[in-house]
Amino acid sequence: MFFNRRGSKKYAYITARVRAMKSKLIQREVFPKMMNMDLAEITRFIGESEYKQDVDELAQKYSGIDLVEHALNQNLARTYRKLLRISKDEPHYLITEYLRYWDIWNIKTILRGKYYGATLEEIQEAVVAAGQLGYRQLISIAGMESIDDIKVALENTPYHSAISDYQGGMLSTVENNLDKLYYSRILSSMGKSKGEKLSLKFIKTEIDLKNLKTLFRTKKADLPRDEIMELLISGGAELKDGDLRRLVSLSWPDFIKSMEDYSYWSALSEVISEDMPSLMDVEAELDKYAMKYSSKVSHYYPLSILPIFDYIVRKNNEINNLRTIARGKESALSDDIIKKHLVM
Amino acid sequence: MVDINLAEASVEQILANQRGLIAIGAGLAVGLSGIASALAEKDIGAAAVGAMAEREELFGKGLIMTVIPETIVIFGLVVAILLWFVA
């Protein structure tokens, strides 16, 4: 028992450290205060907090919203790389797999950028080097002209199989392949211990929420059945393959009604209706649900990977909130609209 | 091991034998409780160092938490002393 290979001994250090890091995140009551600041004040505010190093480093190169954007991205990448640095063995492996999300994100960003003819600077702005692909590697990939060069550059990575068939043109298939690759890898990386079973449920819930978002978007846009099925990821916790097939074939009003059968209804019941004009509220509620869920499960099994996943989710959410406020202020949006986009 | 035939042993030999057994008991009391507190402190110490790496002000709390399982070995020590001087 004491010498169990998958015991708690590997998690005591990292979870305590991650909890201390979590206590340094921006508190939720600070965000409304930031709504009263203008962009320069926001920059100064984050420059005096955990983002000091990033803002100081980038202040010579960028200014205004670009500075905030780059500082946030760099900080996110730095924080996640730190998690990899301070962990080893099993937690390290699981964090690596979980953070592959950002590799997928970057590859998608670069391919999208290429498809729409974005400049290198624009792609650079959206790249977050938090996964296994480093910043320099990503920038060099982003600088490549042809899709074939990009494929060659990714040849020795696990992502090659997902993009090997891509010939340019519409991105939905390749983005799908990448998502499916990511989730199949992470699902297969989990073992059988009690903590890992809970982690598995966490990942499966994440898949459910992702599928729900896809379902809401595609059902609202009234896409054909087969196209929707292709976009969905199997392996969810509540929405199994059978449920997905059933939901896809329902009409929009029936689809909304059938949501009542799932536990996600508690999160959605307030904002969901047949004639809702936009899905903004639904997606915000789903994001909130994901955050609440991750913090709830992180207390069920404190010496496991779950508190670390919870931190990863929260840090990403903090960055998204800061970006929303900064971008909103820059485009002179009203406070109400910005507030609706914040996930707290 | 010295083989003692109790029927033939003198009273001094039997008393010495019993003191030896008490010494073994006292040693086990300290030794095993020492291992137990080490197992308990291992995780707490690792966690305390982790928390301290991020927030130095947690040093005091971390130190106190780390030495709490030390009570186990103190109980062991008390039992050993009782065995040695009282029994």
Can you characterise this structure?
The complex is a heterodimer of chains A (344) and B (87). Chain A has 344 residues and is mostly helical. Chain A is built from 19 helices and no strands. Chain B is mainly α. The relative contact order of chain B is 0.15. Chain A binds chain B through residues 2, 8-9, 12-21, 23-24, 86, 303, and chain B through 39, 42-44, 46-51, 53-55, 58.
Short description:
The complex is a heterodimer of chains A (344) and B (87). With 344 residues, chain A is mainly alpha-helical. Chain A has 19 helices and no strands.
Number of helices of chain A: 19
Q: Radius of gyration of chain A, rounded?
A: 21 Å
The chain-level mean pLDDT of chain B equals 88
- Give the oligomeric state of the chains in this entry, treating copies of one chain as homo and distinct chains as hetero: heterodimer
Model regions low in confidence, pLDDT < 50 over at least 5 residues of chain A: 1-7
Give the CATH architecture of the domain at 193-301 in chain A: Up-down Bundle
CATH C-level of the domain at 193-301 in chain A: Mainly Alpha
Helix residue percentage of chain B: over 70%
What level of helicity do the residues of chain A show?
55-70%
Low-confidence stretches of chain B: none
Structure summary, number of beta strands of chain B = 0
Label the structural class of chain B.
mainly alpha
Q: Could you spell the SSE succession of chain B in H and E letters? A: HHH
Distance between the termini of chain B: 24 Å
Principal-axes shape call of chain A = globular
Distance between the termini of chain A: 40 Å
Strand content of chain A: under 5%
Tell me the total number of β-strands of chain A. Answer: 0
- Note the total helix count of chain B: 3
Main sheet properties of chain A = none
